[in-house]
């Protein structure tokens, strides 16, 4: 008899399982698009790491660092946060993304979240995506401005280059960067709304054209994209208004004037989006009415053809019963006469239906 101890032991699944490969950390430099030091409104020549840039900026009274990040992961963002003493909650929001536009303050640091939008070229009768969204986040402190971008559009290289051409604005420090980025994002809102306005004009023309093939699905798709645009634009009104009016925030008065202009543009875009929503609702009703009219027209045609087919069917059914009492069966002209009657009645019905607009 085999003893229990001599039986082969079953290896556990933990022993057979392959240990997971350790995740290789990606250097923080991979997420950095640009890192510059600015003093007296001008960029300091040279290349710096974030820590070196902060050290260089602290050598002067008005120096600050502007770092641009693109899709940083948790380790990269934590590295930046430790250098510039960013609040862990703000760092977490910057990594996760999908945030509602907002403005948070952590001591001397402000954290502004904005949604970015990009218009995608498409045909007016398509049901593909029209508006692509992303995120833009800006940290501003006494010595730094950090921009975090999620998405492949709304690049900031042009914003940095344009702002570097205006040292008088850069002298206001990191809040000048915040204004420039916010202004750029709102300008993209304006461009997208203009493009969507053109789409709505084309769709209106197509819907009210009798032979057009624009379906109600295309209108619903455009309406859904307008809803997505409104979710990106409308919530930004509160943070911008707070930047303009809240005197406790560390924002120079001159930058507040610039931000007021950005807030006005954002409010104008919100008004346009409200008009788009109303216009598309009207187009949906018009398209449904058009479909209803077309269905009624089709039903009238079907009814007219059915009536024309019923006449010869009725006569042929009666004539085909072949009763001896039907005197026409015994006449040589009975069959030709029946055919003539059928044709005459069908032509009379055809003429009547065409006169009434049914055919």
TrEMBL record:
Localization per Swiss-Prot or TrEMBL: Cell membrane
Compositionally biased intervals (Low complexity): 1-10
Superkingdom, taxonomy of origin: Bacteria
Transmembrane segments: 302-320, 332-350
Protein keywords: Cell membrane, Membrane, Transmembrane, Transmembrane helix, Transport
Chain residue ranges for the region called Disordered: 1-27
Predominant localisation class: membrane
Topology term for the membrane: Multi-pass membrane protein
Any Pfam family: CorA
PANTHER family, sorted: CORA FAMILY METAL ION TRANSPORTER (EUROFUNG) (PTHR46494)
Family from the record: Belongs to the CorA metal ion transporter (MIT) (TC 1.A.35) family.
Listed name of the protein: Magnesium and cobalt transport protein CorA
Source lineage: Bacteria, Bacillati, Actinomycetota, Actinomycetes, Mycobacteriales
């Amino acid at each position: 008899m085999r003893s229990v101890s001599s039986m082969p032991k079953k290896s556990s699944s933990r022993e057979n399982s392959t240990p997971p490969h350790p995740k290789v950390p990606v250097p923080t430099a991979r997420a950095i698009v640009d890192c510059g030091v600015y003093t007296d409104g001008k960029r300091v020549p040279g290349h710096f790491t974030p820590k070196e840039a902060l050290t260089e900026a602290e050598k002067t009274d008005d120096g600050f660092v502007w770092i641009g990040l693109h899709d940083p992961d948790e380790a990269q963002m934590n590295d930046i946060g430790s250098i510039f003493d960013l609040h862990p909650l703000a760092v977490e929001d910057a990594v996760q993304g999908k945030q509602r536009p907002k403005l948070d303050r952590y001591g001397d640091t402000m954290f502004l979240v904005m949604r970015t939008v990009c218009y995608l070229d498409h045909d007016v009768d398509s049901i593909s995506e029209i508006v692509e969204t992303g995120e833009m986040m800006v940290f501003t402190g006494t010595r730094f401005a950090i921009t975090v971008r999620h998405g492949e559009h709304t690049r900031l290289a042009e914003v940095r280059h344009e702002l570097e051409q205006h040292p008088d604005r850069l002298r206001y420090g990191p809040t000048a960067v915040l204004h420039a980025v916010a202004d750029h994002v709102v300008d993209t809102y304006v461009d997208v709304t203009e493009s969507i306005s053109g789409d709505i004009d084309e769709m209106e023309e197509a819907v009210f054209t009798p032979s057009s093939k624009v379906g109600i699905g295309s209108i619903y798709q455009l309406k859904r994209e307008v809803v997505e645009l409104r979710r990106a634009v409308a919530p930004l009104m509160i943070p911008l208004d707070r930047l303009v009016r809240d005197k406790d925030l560390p924002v120079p008065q001159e930058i507040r004037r610039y931000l007021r202009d950005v807030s006005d543009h954002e409010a104008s875009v919100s008004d346009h989006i409200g008009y788009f929503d109303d216009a598309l609702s009207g187009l949906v009703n018009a398209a449904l009415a058009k479909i209803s009219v077309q269905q009624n027209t089709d039903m009238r045609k079907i009814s007219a053809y059915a009536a024309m087919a019923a006449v010869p069917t009725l006569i042929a059914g009666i004539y085909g019963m072949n009763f001896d009492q039907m005197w026409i069966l015994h006449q040589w002209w009975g069959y030709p006469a029946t055919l003539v009657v059928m044709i005459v009645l069908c032509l009379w019905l055809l003429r009547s239906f065409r006169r009434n607009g049914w055919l």
